[in-house]
Every structure is written in structure tokens, then in C-alpha cells.
Amino acid sequence: MSTIFIPKHIRPMHGRLAYNDCALFHDMTNVELDTLESCADQTKCNAGDYLFRQNAPSDHVYNVISGTVAIERVSNNGRRQVLGFLFPGDFLGITNSAHYDYAVRSLTKTELYKFNRKRLYTLADELPHLKTNIAEISSRIFNRILDQLYILGQKKAHERLCFLFMQLLERLPGARPDRVELYMTRQDMADYLGLTIETVSRSLAKLKADGLIAFPQLNVLQILDIAKVSELADT
């Protein structure tokens, strides 16, 4: 079986991929994976690089192999909104539009699979598992958008930060309560949570004063009271 686009920590098992977080590959046979490889390539970005800019032609679908990226959108008056943070196993670029309506910026050194979008969608009509997996990925993206809309409309500033921290704990590889790497800046957090950077700073100070979190290093978070942080983050 060809494995050009399969990470080293993924191993075939009984004709299937034993990597549950990589949704595109779920339940696909070795033959199907060989077919999928025909539209796959690999690309890399350094921290600060843009994978693509807003309004660029939507020619590809990407899967993050390693690293962290931010999805962002800029309004006509120049205001930026961070729409989400993506980690290994996450996908971006799944759209039926001719152009991307957002930009993707690497927060760290990042490796991604790059799939030709039209070829991928054509294969989805031929491979039932692939079509199901793309639908599942789209559903996950939609659910994350709903969660974000909810916290922007219903949560206080410090609760929004708790929501972000629980997202990172759940989705960032290697994250654990006593050590969560923060690859985004305070401004990135603010633009994601619909806050000002000053409000983010005050809210972090409140959470620290309440004994819920600590920062043993500048960009390393410790969650000291996981039950309370989870309660505040609850959607």
C-alpha cells in the first residue's frame, strides 16, 4: 500500500487505518487509500506564513499533519476575526465556492496534505467511504461553528477563555491539564473570542487570581481546577 500521505504514527490494521482522529481515512481499505493518493501531495509552511489568502481560488483541500494554523477573515474595513484554530487531523478548504472566503495562517512550522479539490470530490462519488467521511468532516466543522456562535453570544469573557482552553485540551496533541502549549498570541485569542486584548488580559488575571489556571512559562498554560474550568466552558 502506498503511504506517501499517511503520517508515521498511522498504521494499517486489518485493512483499515488505526487512526481515529484522521476522519478522511475512516474505514477506507488499502485499495481505496491507493486511489486517494492519486490526488494527494504534501506541503509545508513556516510560522507566520499564509497557506492561502482570502479570496484565493479554492483549488485544494488540506489536512494538517503537524503544527497549528489559524483560520481568519478580514472585513472590508480591515477588522480581523479568527474563525478557528486547526491541529493535526483537522481539515480545511472543504467548500463548493470557487474562492476561499477566509485566509489560513501558520502559527507554527506546519506540514499539510494537499488534495486537489475537484479530483477529491470526483473520487467521493466513486468511493462510498470517502463520501461519508467528507460529510462527517463537514458536520464537525458546522458543530464547531455553532459552539463558537453560542459562546460569543452567551458567555462572559473569562468563560470564553475557558471554552478555548477546553478546546485546546481536547484537540491539541500532547495537551494535558498541567501543560497546554499556547501557540496563538493574546491578540489571536481576542480575535477568536470576540474580545479586546485588554479584556483578554484582565480575564486571564481573574482566572489566575481565582486559582483556576497558571502560566509557569509565557506560552504554557496549566489548568489547576479542571472541573471548574470545564463548568465555565460548558456549551
TrEMBL record:
Identify the PANTHER family for this entry. CRP FAMILY TRANSCRIPTIONAL REGULATORY PROTEIN (PTHR24567), FUMARATE AND NITRATE REDUCTION REGULATORY PROTEIN (PTHR24567:SF75)
Q: Where is the HTH crp-type domain?
A: 155-227
- The Cyclic nucleotide-binding domain extends over 24-93
Identify the domain of life.
Bacteria
The family database entries (InterPro entries) matched by this protein are listed as: cNMP-bd_dom, cNMP-bd_dom_sf, Env_Response_Regulators, HTH_CRP, RmlC-like_jellyroll, Tscrpt_reg_HTH_Crp-type_CS, WH-like_DNA-bd_sf, WH_DNA-bd_sf
Question: Pfam family of this protein, just one?
Answer: HTH_Crp_2
**Protein name in the entry:** Crp/Fnr family transcriptional regulator
Asked if the Swiss-Prot or TrEMBL record annotates the protein with the keyword Disulfide bond, the reply is no
Q: Extract the CDD domains matched here.
A: CAP_ED, HTH_CRP
Which keywords label this protein?
Answer: DNA-binding, Transcription, Transcription regulation
A cellular-component GO term for this protein: cytosol
This entry's Gene Ontology molecular function terms read: DNA binding; DNA-binding transcription factor activity
